[in-house]
Amino acid sequence: MAEFSDKLSEELWTTAHALADAARASILPHFRSAGLNAENKLAEGFDPVTVADRAAEEAMRAVLAEMRPQDGILGEEFGNAAGTSGLTWVLDPIDGTRGFLAGTPTWGVLIALSDETGPRLGVIDQPYTGERFCGGLGRADMTGPLGPRGLKTRAPRGLDEAILFTTFPEIGTEADRSAFGRVRDAARLTRYGMDCYAYALVAAGQIDLVVEAGLHPYDIQAPIAVIEAAGGVVTDWEGGPAHNGGRALAAANPALHAEALRLLNG
Fold it and tell me: pTM score > 0.70 for this model?
């Protein structure tokens, strides 16, 4: 893993904040607005996209064209753009479009910067609540209505004391649901429907675990960077890298991660 100079790290964080600011400005006029509609990207099932998703990604791509044109881009709505620097910005303009449509403030903007080893920095931004969670390149902090603070995951505790989140009760395949059920049955409290905000709560020390399946790289790379910077662990369900998507297990600490991993694998 290449080390970044202080100057480059500062430049990259300046760019990340500019991206998040541009996305906020593009999204907020549409949130809870009358007549907001969504297109369905799936022939079977429901994978919505709104004008806000597309406007936010277009705004972020315009920022990168000005500030970091040498970098690659992987975005949910407009695909890949090759770069020459070896660095790629991984963008999910609205993670949790279903929640966005329902008016819940649990969606967010996901921004990661990755190299060949995986994500190096990440931002989880919730425009409506004004919260921004940042991790990587020496940072683990957030800003919000209560002001700036550091990010640190929750102290170790047994799974029987843990708070677990996932977005959909109908997680993944039938086998995935069975595996998730073993963790759910062992946890103290399980909640649903939080999308990327659940990962932010792991980094902030509020909850202990997130278990997900069916993810894309742009769903998980920013959460990986933020949670790992705050002291947590994110892998796939086999304990390997999760930055290419698929099934993910995010935990506040290695001991709890190992306990959940054992249950996921029967």
Answer: yes
